[in-house]
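BUG-353 | component: ligand-complex export | severity: low

The export step for iron/sulfur cluster jobs runs without errors, but we want the raw record kept on the ticket for reference. Input record follows.
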Amino acid sequence: MRRKAIVLLSGGLDSMLAARLMQDQGIDVEGVNFYTGFCIENHTQAIRGQNRGRRHQALWVADRLGIPLHIVDISEAYKKILLEPRYGYGTALNPCLDCKIFMVQQAALFLEKADTVAQEQAADFIVTGEVIGQRMKSQLKRTMPIIARESGVHDRLLRPLCAQLLEPTLPERLGWVDRNKLYGFNGRSRQPQIELARSLGLEEWAQPAGGCCFLTDPHYARKLSDLWQSRGQRDYSLDDALLLKVGRHLRPRPHFKMIIPREEGENRFLEGFRHRFLSLQSLEHPGPLALVDGALNPEDQYLAARILARYSQGRNENTLRVGFFDTKKSLALTLDVIPLPANEVEESWHVGR
Ligand code: SF4
């Protein structure tokens, strides 16, 4: 009887190798990829111009391996994980250990299909590409059993890249997979995985710059903390999570923040949010728009217009005409302002870049 594994496929090398090792042992493999709202991949594809045209990495990996991929949106349920992580955060606002437990738990729903769907559609075990010692918090030898236990998956969770350093799991004990053909990788070096990939004939894999998740990014974490502080509560919507990925976020005064795009793709993306925010734009020169989150008094309006003018192509003019648009995109106010010199944009205004 052929056995089936569900592999948590991030799109990176490790999970790709884990899936491939299972295939090489005659296991049927399906991938699952989770969308939390904080994935870098979706952002870079959708917004940043330089990555346009690139494929979704997990889809690309699944295609290379010839396996089906389930892309599952867990963004709503993920809120609780991010807002109340039982095991706390990593170096930024990344609740990695809780996140891993949750994802394995979600993947386990594919095991439970045995009770509800035709038996042959159910998976027998879960596979991840975790390597002991690769991440400070979630991938330590002592935390691996926590993930297995708290996800409820227990010994149906197999990590082929470091299995030889862990207790044998059910698939190993029952002979579904040969433990001798698994690995004992340990540590932060990527070299063993790269060598394994080459030995398997894999020449191409994703090397996502800056990891796969914005929650590990200190700039992003600062923007998220600032959002919570300004609202007086720790909560967010999916739109909030997306907006924090885009543009420079400047808070010149505690009661308002400006979001100013850094390039054309971001400008187009922010256009889609003008129905929710007051927006500013230079009326005479090309340049970015700015969204304003918060209420502006006349003094704030003048300051916001000067800041926007500083990022427009008319920044060297003596004065610049800036338009304020309401949420129906109607021109509500026009101000002629002196663009703010670069040295007057205070460092403390930058919530995150
Ligand atoms: S980096 Fe992000 S997606 Fe990955 S385990 Fe940590 S919180 Fe989860």
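Assignee comment: Attached the raw record above. The pocket of iron/sulfur cluster is lined by residues 94-96, 99-100, 138, 212-213, 215-216 (CB under 6 Å).
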